[in-house]
Amino acid sequence: MKEAAEHIDALSNEEIIDMATTMLSHVGLTLDDLKNKKVVDLGSGTQIIERAATAKGTGAVLSVDSRDYVLSKRSEVKNGVVADIRKGIPQIPNDSIDLLISHAGPPTISAVSRRKENVDSSVEEILRVLKKGGEARITRVQFDFIAQKHEKLQELLNKKHGNKERLTSDEENEMDEMWNLVKDESFEYLREKGIDIIEKETETKDWTYGVIKK
Questions:
Q1: Separation between Cα atoms, residue 183 and residue 168, nearest integer Å
Q2: Which of 100, 114, 119, 182 allows an S-S link to 144, with CB 3.0 to 4.6 Å?
Q3: Buried b / exposed e across 149-182, counting CB within 10 Å, b at 16+?
Q4: Residues 38-51: pLDDT tens digits?
């Protein structure tokens, strides 16, 4: 991962803007949507969105990642902080953020979402930092602690990734259906906790994301 971060740091601003544009499209946004807003990129990795926003002049983005070694070393990328959302982000005051983006990070990554209490604490922290009227956009709302309850899905995942066996087309379709069920159950889990979240599709309809409103 450190080598990958160094490679990304060496990319041109034009390449970074292209990458950020793709990432933001996964949550229905463009770089222009970040203008005049206090924005957090949660699980930012190498701060691609922050660097792209700086290069394009669309405002400052605060990049948050739990791994210090992935943060950018470029001098113009200054807003990286190291924090684990499960334990809170003390660098961010209450009710201070207009928009929080998690394009490939908490609370949906398996390292966090395999435990229900981690999902709960992550969502609570997201709501703490958002302003009233602010929103969070999160890709792939499919929690691992829910996926683990589906034995058939785990069987197929183990066959594909554990045993490195090729799945039949019927098995691939079945796995897709199971992941859709996990997604639906993940959204319902949050709604049952009183979270105002809706599911949206990207314009290309090949990606879904959740929008949490405060």
A1: 23
A2: 114
A3: ebeebeebbeeeeeeeeeeeeebeeebeebbeeb
A4: 999 999 999 999 99
Query: Could you tell me how many residues make up the chain?
Result: 214
C-alpha span between 207 and 59 (Å, rounded): 26
pLDDT digits (tens, 9 = 90+) for 157-206: 999 998 889 999 999 999 999 999 999 999 999 999 999 999 999 887 77
CA distance 214 to 101: 14
Residue 93: burial class (beta carbons within 10 Å; 0-12, 13-18, 19+): exposed
Helix/strand/coil for 64: strand
DSSP-derived secondary structure for 4-38: HHHHHHTS-HHHHHHHHHHHHHTTT--GGGGTTS-
Instruction: Please name each of the domains of the chain with its CATH number.
Output: 2-143+195-213 (3.40.50.150)
Q: Please state, as a whole number, how many other Cβ atoms lie within 10 Å of the Cβ of residue 34.
A: 25
Task: Mark 97-133 as b/e (b = at least 16 C-beta within 10 Å).
Answer: bebbbbbbbbbbbeebbeeeebbebbbebbbbbbeee
